Amino acid sequence: MSHSRAKVHRMFELLEPIAAVTYSEATNEPFMALGMRNFWDGYFAGRAAPLGLVPAEVVHAVFYNFADGEVARHIPWVWGKITPQEAIAVRERGSVTALRGRIGELADSDGLGRAGDLATLAAVSAPTEGRALYAGLRALDVPEEPVAKLWHAATLLREHRGDGHNAALLAHGIGGTEAHVLLACSLGMKPEKFGRIHHLPKAQLAAVVDGLRARGLVNDAGGFTDAGRDIKERIEALTDDLAAPAYDVLNADELDELIAGLEPIAAAVQAADD
Prior knowledge:
By secondary structure, the chain is mostly helical. It contains 12 helices and no strands.
């Protein structure tokens, strides 16, 4: 069945903090213990592992929003320290530890188990066409332990949405670094202050901003024009629409139940992170 865009977007808001525990210190430490040099080694090893031993160019294409050369600083170097299969296991263990630590007693609640079951039902039924990273994750076994199962489902649904978001960006002619500039604008930040792109050479970042300005999407002050704001909103709407089929397997009551079940879990994660 078809669910409203608002509910699909609400699922994104609730799943994002659960999946994003993967990028915390608790997950990074086990990678560092295995010889990774820094956070980004572990990031690329863990996130790219479901793709297998593909070259940096493939990971760059699938991840979409890293500047040229950034992936190649880590892939394939990390595969000299850890196999993809090992990276998948390390990532899951660290993520589950991080999630369990943030949600406390909720980890052993019936509500979490039910939310994990419903989220998994959605996560393993979404279309894979054009979604390389999601398809790689779909090939993995679903964990049986409830907290691990919920994290795994949240990660699947996050990457399913992410693959669709990349398609929406591509359809609107927005490149990876441009996407970060537009996100910075939407947050009221100068691109050179935004965490994912602040390290880029000033001339390189200025060229990206100049290109968006030439297209009429960014003004001289570095903020959105009306056209820039409109394209950002259309991309987000299309992203939600492309994510929606994952939830077709759930009826309206089940989706409402899933949203209600995820709300205290996501709130606990956000409170712990704050």
